[in-house]
Automatic annotation (TrEMBL):
Interval of the full protein contained in this chain: 486 to 769 of 788
Domain of life: Bacteria
Protein name as catalogued: GGDEF domain-containing protein
All copies of domain EAL, residue ranges: 23-282
């Protein structure tokens, strides 16, 4: 038994070292990819549920190594966050997205949303970087929404304080703030009332799996209704994520949710395709 235990420990060591090696290799490749400009920003429309018209687009980063299929952010954002690389990458995404979205805003009045990682919000220069990206692109501050996750503003200590200072300063400029993946965190509801936010994005895990008659659909619907009512009573705009079916869109409209985003409307697509979609669907 002792020998087996020892073998297990040795195996575990190898697995650990391998995982760490894997992470270091990924990080090296990511650093090189930033220098080589292998990133792209794709966009997914956010649709007004009352009339089906796109009102905004969310910027979603992609890593496209030459000759390979795009790599999704879930596979590299965590490593970029741990290493701090997200600060440079996030700034690049913001600048790229503002440049893409400025002419869309001019032509169709559509706005832009950009994901911001917690690491970016403890950068003392974050406010200045956002203001500079807006100025250089010509996109007005009122046409930009920053998406942050629930935890960012309620963590204790200086980090939440620094994030609050940035978001308050940016809101004073006209930038809006959205809580992303709402309902998946563990924070108190009081922050919805007290903190500088404008939009709630309801996490896609709350969408009913079926067409309203399946197991758990009633509970899911009740949760979405509760979130929408809560947001409305606080004067926040609601956006539902993961709208995959016409049933989802109809249900959300009936519940009074303002906007929807999901495969039912469109997948994330490159900038030229999104511009084509806006040209065809937005009535000016
Ligand atoms: P997120 O911010 O919650 O973005 C929505 C994700 O859901 C996107 O995945 C999108 O492709 C996917 N999605 C959209 N509609 C549907 C649907 O109807 N059904 C399902 N099942 N999924 C849908 P993506 O592009 O792979 O991004 C994953 C996550 O990576 C994002 O989740 C966000 O947290 C992070 N991310 C993406 N771009 C950036 C970025 O520029 N900066 C930072 N910090 N994070 C980013
Ligand atoms: Ca998001
Ligand atoms: Ca989300
Ligand atoms: Ca999500």
């Amino acid at each position: 038994a002792k020998a087996a235990g020892k073998d297990c420990a040795a195996l575990f060591d190898v697995a650990m070292r391998d995982e760490q090696g894997e992470r270091i290799r990924l990080l090296e490749r990511l650093r090189a990819a930033v220098d080589a400009g292998e990133f792209a920003v794709h966009y997914q429309p956010i649709v007004n549920l009352d009339n089906g018209t796109p009102t905004a687009a969310e910027a979603l980063v992609r890593w496209i190594p030459p000759g390979q299929a795009p790599i999704g952010p879930d596979r590299f954002i965590p490593a970029a966050e741990d290493s701090g690389l997200i600060v440079a990458l996030g700034e690049w995404v913001l600048r790229r997205a503002c440049r893409d979205a400025a002419p869309w805003y001019q032509r169709w009045g559509t706005t832009l949303t950009v994901n911001v990682s917690p690491r970016q919000l403890i950068d003392p220069h974050f406010t200045r970087k956002v203001v500079s990206a807006l100025r250089d692109s010509g996109l007005p501050a009122t046409a930009l929404t920053l998406e942050i996750t629930e935890g960012v503003l309620v963590r204790s200590g200086g980090h939440a304080q620094q994030a609050l200072v940035h978001l308050s300063a940016l809101r004073a400029e006209g930038v809006r703030v959205a809580i992303d993946d709402f309902g998946t965190g563990y924070s108190s509801l009081a922050y919805l009332r007290d903190l500088p936010i404008d939009v709630l994005k309801i996490d896609r895990s709350f969408m009913p799996a079926g067409n309203g008659h399946g197991d758990g659909d009633a509970q899911q619907t009740a949760l979405v209704r509760t979130i929408v009512d809560l947001a409305r009573s606080l004067g926040l705009t609601t956006v539902a994520e993961g709208v995959e079916t016409a049933y989802h869109a109809d249900l959300l409209r009936a519940l009074g949710c303002d906007r929807g985003q999901g495969y039912h409307f469109a997948r994330p697509i490159p900038a030229p395709e999104l511009a084509m979609m806006f040209a065809e669907t937005v009535i000016v």
